[in-house]
């Protein structure tokens, strides 16, 4: 049976003028809903002198005040558990979730209704159908099914489109690998870090996933690395499968971007359900195609916690839909999410973005684990050191690698000198789920 390439053929190929008309209609309605129901938005709109009826064109979006994570946190602190962000009584909710809780940060807590969950799953359907998941697929979730929202929506989406789902749940990595092979899994959902870990573990078990498993698609989420070409290439080789990037946020509850099966080197924006603005993070002015900026998201889907002009601090570069050959009219974030603006480190006057450094390091297959270590020398000079471990069997490459990597890093950073330090195997932390490879040890580094 021949399937359509698109989950929603009409909306995914809507001429941009019609798409924008749809966005305008949804935007105005959604602002009306938020203003009528949600104290958080009422006070913010009032303070900014904004009224939903002022939305006459999409440019009027810029009249709406930004929403920040800090404001959200303040509201949560003042009025536990959910602040004044709920649009309806909590009795109408069916599920409670939290952000994964990056170290030291208070997690964001969210509630969703059944209707919200229908929408959450629908957004994942766009993405995973777009990457090629079909009813014939046997899908495996290497996911803990906890209070982190993560792949929950993707699980339901796979059921919705008719695939056979295996919830990986809490098991050892070895047990997961055995299931993937024994049950004839064709599609695996995982974070990039864990997909790499599964492969490394399988090698230790004497299993070649590329030959012995039926996996032909690995769908990545949870970390930006799914669009770093060297990471993607490594994973595709390791699994003998295509790897597709997706990205979502707990604040939205689902994904807002996905890579289609044409793999254009970026991720389509689900533009019939989101408005994604890209702004200069300092001036808040919009930037054009091909320029880096901060993504600001307005989501029309989650009724329980309306999200309007939310500042994500994610670094992105938008390119036109025509960059891809799939026929979707939805614009693309070239390179997916490229990191976070607040991740930027200033080292002796040069901007260093951890993800850009990772992209260079990943060009060297002999490197196993690494850490970006920033420190201060004699209380005067900031230094950046790449601590790395060499894979067993590749030790002979070290002298040459050290020389080349130092050169590559410097030439990508206006000549900035990076120190390279080789560590004994197993000294650096090895990550299974989400990686934390940046350590800023300077005094007051995290002010
Ligand atoms: Zn495409």
Description:
With 447 residues, the protein is an alpha/beta fold. The protein is built from 12 helices and 19 strands. The chain has an 11-stranded mixed sheet with strand order 4-3-5-6-7-8-9-13-12-11-10. Strands 18-17-16-19 form a 4-stranded mixed sheet, with helices on one face. Helix 5 crosses helix 6 and helix 8 packs parallel to helix 10 (229-239). The radius of gyration is 22 Å and the shape is globular. The protein starts with 8 loop residues before the first helix and ends in a 7-residue tail after the last strand. The model has no long low-confidence stretch (mean pLDDT 93). The protein binds zinc ion (ZN). Residues 260, 262, 264, 268, 324, 326, 328 line the site of zinc ion.
């Amino acid at each position: 049976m021949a399937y359509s390439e698109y989950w929603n053929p009409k909306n995914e190929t809507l001429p941009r003028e019609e798409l924008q008309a749809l966005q305008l209609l949804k935007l105005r309605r959604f602002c009306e809903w938020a203003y009528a129901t949600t104290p958080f938005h009422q006070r913010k709109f009032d303070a900014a002198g904004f009224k939903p009826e002022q939305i006459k064109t999409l440019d009027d979006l810029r009249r709406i005040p930004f929403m920040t994570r800090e404001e959200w946190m303040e509201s949560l602190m003042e009025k536990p558990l959910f602040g004044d962000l709920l649009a309806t009584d909590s009795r109408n909710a069916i599920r409670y979730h939290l952000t994964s809780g990056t170290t030291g940060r208070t997690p964001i807590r969210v509630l969703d209704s059944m209707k919200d969950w229908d929408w959450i799953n629908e957004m994942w359907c766009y993405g995973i159908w777009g990457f090629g998941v079909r009813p014939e697929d046997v899908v495996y979730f290497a996911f803990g099914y906890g209070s982190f929202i993560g792949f929950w929506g993707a699980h339901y989406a796979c059921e919705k489109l008719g695939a056979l789902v295996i919830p990986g749940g809490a098991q050892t990595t070895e047990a997961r690998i055995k299931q993937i092979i024994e049950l004839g899994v064709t599609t695996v959902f995982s974070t990039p870090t864990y997909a790499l870990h599964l492969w490394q573990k399988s090698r230790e078990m004497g299993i070649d996933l590329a030959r012995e498993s039926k996996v032909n698609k690995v769908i990545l989420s949870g970390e930006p690395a799914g669009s770093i070409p060297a990471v993607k290439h490594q994973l595709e080789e390791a699994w003998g499968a295509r790897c597709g990037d997706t990205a979502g946020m707990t604040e939205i509850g689902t994904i807002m971007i996905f890579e289609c099966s044409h793999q254009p080197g970026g991720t389509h924006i689900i533009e019939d359900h989101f408005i994604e603005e890209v702004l200069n993070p300092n001036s808040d002015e919009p930037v054009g195609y091909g320029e880096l900026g901060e993504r600001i998201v307005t989501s029309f889907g989650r009724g329980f916690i309306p999200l309007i002009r939310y500042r994500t601090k994610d670094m992105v570069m938008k390119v036109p839909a025509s960059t891809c050959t799939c026929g979707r009219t939805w614009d693309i974030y070239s390179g997916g999410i490229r990191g976070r603006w607040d991740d930027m480190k200033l080292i002796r006057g040069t901007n260093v973005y951890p993800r850009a450094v990772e992209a260079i390091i990943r060009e060297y297959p002999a490197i196993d684990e690494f850490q970006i270590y920033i420190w201060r020398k004699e209380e005067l000079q900031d230094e950046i050191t790449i601590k790395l471990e060499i894979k067993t069997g590749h030790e002979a490459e070290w002298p040459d690698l050290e020389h080349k990597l130092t050169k590559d890093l410097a030439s990508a950073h206006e000549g900035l000198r990076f120190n390279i330090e080789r560590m004994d195997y197993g000294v650096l932390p090895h990550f299974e789920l989400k990686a934390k490879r940046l350590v800023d040890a300077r005094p007051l580094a995290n002010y």
